[in-house]
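In response to the reviewer comment on reproducibility (Comment 2.3), we provide here a single inverse folding case reported in full, input and output, so that an independent group could reproduce the run without further information from us. The structure tokens appear first.
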């Protein structure tokens, strides 16, 4: 499955996003707070969409797509700290879908326009988990569903939100489960989910936390972050 995950996080769901310098590595062990929905109701449409957590570590985006009143899209997104994708060449995500085709959406602070985002499509396999890598070079800029001519390329360092959109022009119920969303480095690697707390604390300049970790280290009692 050409796998893509669209998301935007207002409040980061894991410590890997505490500092802007930390690469994006979104997991949902701590919940799905910060994910929001954007629906075609802003244009008079009647599609629905919601974000829930059916089980620990999983974000579920579900609802019903409607083409009535010129509608036809449902989206979930979350904000990410600017520069958290600097140096990345793409996104890796693991999803379980319903056989429908979704879009991964990325918005950048240096390219702002009405209903505009960088997009690439990905297919899902009904009921099956699939891991997909989406190179940024595949993303194209769209506004109101139309390709923007002579558009600039996506600049990873300026990404400020990510998300997933359904707009396949097929009315009916939909459901997409997301396990994680991670940045891919220029070396083709994804950030380690087990990046230790001391590294995160230093990047975020959390001196109190860092001091506690150093004391804890001296007694060999603090583990690294849980690795999926």
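Designed residues, in position order:
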């Amino acid at each position: 499955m050409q796998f893509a995950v669209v998301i935007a996080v207002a409040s980061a769901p894991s410590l890997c996003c505490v500092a802007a310098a930390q690469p994006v590595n979104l997991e949902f062990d701590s919940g799905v707070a910060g994910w929001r929905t954007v629906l075609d109701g802003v244009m008079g449409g009647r599609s629905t969409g919601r974000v829930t957590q059916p089980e620990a570590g999983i974000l579920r985006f579900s609802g019903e797509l409607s083409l009535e009143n010129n509608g036809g899209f449902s989206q979930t997104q979350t904000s990410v700290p600017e520069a958290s994708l600097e140096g990345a060449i793409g996104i890796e995500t693991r999803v379980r879908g319903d056989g429908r085709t979704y879009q991964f959406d990325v918005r950048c602070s240096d390219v702002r326009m009405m209903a505009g985002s960088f997009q690439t499509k990905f297919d899902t396999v009904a009921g099956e988990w699939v891991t997909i890598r989406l190179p940024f070079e595949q993303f194209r800029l769209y506004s109101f569903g139309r390709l923007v001519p002579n558009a600039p390329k996506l600049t990873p360092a300026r990404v400020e939100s990510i998300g997933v959109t359904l707009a396949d022009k097929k009315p009916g119920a939909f459901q997409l489960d997301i396990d994680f969303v991670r940045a891919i480095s220029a070396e083709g690697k994804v950030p380690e989910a087990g990046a230790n707390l001391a590294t995160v604390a230093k990047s975020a300049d959390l001196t109190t936390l860092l001091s506690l970790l150093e004391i804890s280290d001296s007694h060999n009692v603090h583990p690294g972050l849980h690795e999926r």
